[in-house]
Specification:
about 475 residues, Uridine Diphospho-n-acetylenolpyruvylglucosamine Reductase, domain 2, Uridine Diphospho-n-acetylenolpyruvylglucosamine Reductase, domain 3
Length: about 475
């Protein structure tokens, strides 16, 4: 269907066609949780069409939701929503020391374009995730320890406001535009439609990796080896310090063995260490994972080198759209054996009670380290050392409430030590829960700043904002 709206402030100004698609053709959303049939889906091919869509939504009292990768299950979609499917804004241009990214580009688009120029920028760990959404929610990448959070590196932004203004923002912006630019770098959801942004690039060679490849050590264990696997993970976190710690990403993941493995359906433990540096440093930092006493409890063990631009390929199975998925996380001051043990038993009980969620529900503890940068008002977590991420993936609608309860239980289990030590609960913005607690994401000062920026640039709340609409 096609709607026509006036894109001029004058009653008799020019009219621009807004091309839209049927609401049944909603862009593939990673999770259908919180999503119902929208009022309209629009696929703009120009900034004029975006402005026209904004004006149409204003007259109809609809909410505008830009969509890139569709991987933000915390954003509600309903009959009052207009989805701006930004698929036609997927250009990526790599220059000298920077990359300009279209508002509809995915991480895979950007990674490939940079790889062709022997450079990289800060991207998520899934090729299907939209780059703009990733950056607006803080931007946690594999390079947190080396470069800091990705959102703090945004150099320039081109965006369209609720009033249809086209702004070009950067660190040289002043006044209200400078405050808007600051908010975008960490709390940017719901402030406008970003048509492009610019990020720095870094030469792959500076990482000094063997053949520009990441060194990866991976061991799988049966559930019976839980204590051995967990202690190896915790020792890695405790022993590695300094520069090496910033380049080492270690994790312990619990999932059901997928089809194709002899243990299909059985709970497995994956202990992984990825090192973004020299081969010798990689081996030195992961000595625990070569210990014969540990390996005798394992099912498999392998060491490999993976090209930097291929690191996300292992997560492709998690990019399937549709179904019901809840994603939550907790940034932790510490992880401990007892907490991980309790979490595993809760995971097993939930899967046994809900067969539709058993196969794909995953829990994951990982190291958390962010390089010192000028402190953002909006992004927290520089004092945390670990994180817990939970993916609950189910097929039956009536599993929603039990899944929500399990998610909250898991996050509380992970935070048990922190709570006992008076450490506040903290959630990273991009993995917040639908209808989550905004006080776990932004400080009271940050929420007040977001509200001021929102009131100035979107006083009618045309765009959905987690910092405003989740209060």
């Amino acid at each position: 269907m096609t709607s026509f709206v006036n894109t001029s402030n004058k009653p008799n100004g020019p009219r621009t066609a807004v091309s839209s698609v049927s609401a049944q053709d909603v862009p593939g959303r990673w999770s259908q949780l919180g999503a119902s049939r929208p009022a309209m889906v629009i696929v703009p091919s120009s900034e004029d069409e975006i402005i026209a869509a904004i004006q149409l939504a204003t007259t109809k009292n609809w909410r505008v939701i830009p969509v890139g990768g569709g991987h933000s299950p915390f954003v509600p979609i309903n009959e009052k929503s207009v989805l701006l499917d930004m698929r036609k804004f997927n250009h990526v241009s790599v220059g000298t020391g920077s990359v300009t990214i279209g508002g509809g580009s995915t991480a895979g688009d950007v990674i490939q374009a940079c790889a062709e120029k022997q450079c990289y920028t800060l991207t998520p760990n899934s090729n299907a995730v939209g780059m703009v959404g990733f950056l607006l929610g803080g931007g946690s990448s594999s390079f947190n320890g080396i470069h800091g959070l990705a959102a703090e590196h945004i150099m320039e932004v081109r965006m369209i406001t609720a009033d249809g203004l086209i702004l070009h923002l950067s660190s040289s912006s002043t006044g209200a535009e400078r405050e808007l630019f600051s908010a975008i770098r960490g709390a940017g959801h719901g402030l406008g439609v970003i048509t492009s942004l610019t990020m720095p690039t870094f030469s792959i060679s500076v990482l000094n990796m063997p053949n520009d490849c990441v060194s990866v050590r991976r061991i799988t264990f049966p559930l019976a080896a839980l204590d051995h696997a967990t202690m190896a993970f915790l020792k890695l976190q405790e022993r590695v310090t300094g520069r090496s710690k910033s380049r080492l990403l270690s994790s312990i993941m619990f999932l059901r063995a997928p089809p194709g493995l002899s243990q299909v359906g059985e709970p497995l433990i994956y202990l992984t260490a990825a090192y973004y540096g020299s081969a010798s440093d990689a081996e030195r930092c992961t000595l625990e994972l070569y210990d014969p006493d540990l390996l005798q409890h394992s099912l498999t063990a392998s060491s490999s080198t993976i090209p930097l631009h291929k690191m996300n390929d292992g997560t492709e199975s998690l990019n399937i759209t549709g179904g019901y998925k809840q994603l939550g996380n907790a940034l932790l001051a510490s992880a401990d054996l007892e907490g991980i043990q309790q979490g595993i038993h809760a995971w097993l009980r939930f899967g046994d009670s809900h067969p539709d969620a058993k196969e794909h529900t995953i829990i994951f503890w990982g190291t958390w380290s962010t390089s010192p940068m000028p402190r953002s008002t909006f992004l927290q977590g520089s004092d945390r050392t670990a994180f817990l991420q939970v993916l609950v993936w189910y097929t039956e609608r009536n599993t929603h409430e039990p899944a929500r309860e399990f998610m909250e239980d898991m996050l509380n289990i992970g935070r048990r030590n922190d709570a006992n030590n008076g450490v506040a609960a903290l959630t990273f913005p991009n993995n917040q829960l639908l209808g989550g607690k905004i006080g776990e994401i932004y400080s009271p000062e940050a929420v007040q700043r977001i509200k001021r920026v929102k009131a100035l640039w979107d006083s009618g709340s045309l765009f959905w904002s987690p910092a405003i609409d989740s209060l």
